[in-house]
Amino acid sequence: MILASQLQAEDAVIRDIVDAGDYYLKVIKKGQTVRILDIEGNQAADTLFYNANDISERYSAIDTIREQGNVYLTAGSVLMTNDCNPLLKIVADTCGRHDTLGGPVRPKVIPCVTL
User: Fold this and answer.
1) In principle, which of 14, 46, 60, 83 could form an S-S bond with 104, CB 3.0–4.6 Å?
2) What is the full per-residue pLDDT of the chain (115 aa) written as tens digits?
3) Domain ranges of the chain
4) For residue 111, how far is the Cα from the chain centroid?
5) Matching Pfam families, A to Z (predicted)?
């Protein structure tokens, strides 16, 4: 589902650009929003999310698919952990849907979804 973010980029506390093929590691606190934006077009983001308080708990595509009843993620989707806890929710999405089964893409990647 296409749903634009109501947040304004100029209000961001942190604004970082991640080069293609590079990585980005930050702690996101409850209630914070992360925007992943494809600034060059036709790119994809390989993302991993972990519970900062227990790194053995991580995003699980299998649990997310089972709980959402759908292999595609979009606005409104709740990403689940391997302990079946909600980890984050996609609150806006200007791409439409994201395949959770495709696995990582080629090494040069930049994001395309707003979380």
Assistant:
1) 46
2) 888 888 888 888 888 888 877 888 999 898 888 888 877 776 767 788 999 999 999 999 999 999 999 999 999 999 999 999 999 999 998 888 777 776 555 444 444 444 4
3) 24-115
4) 8
5) DUF1989 (PF09347)
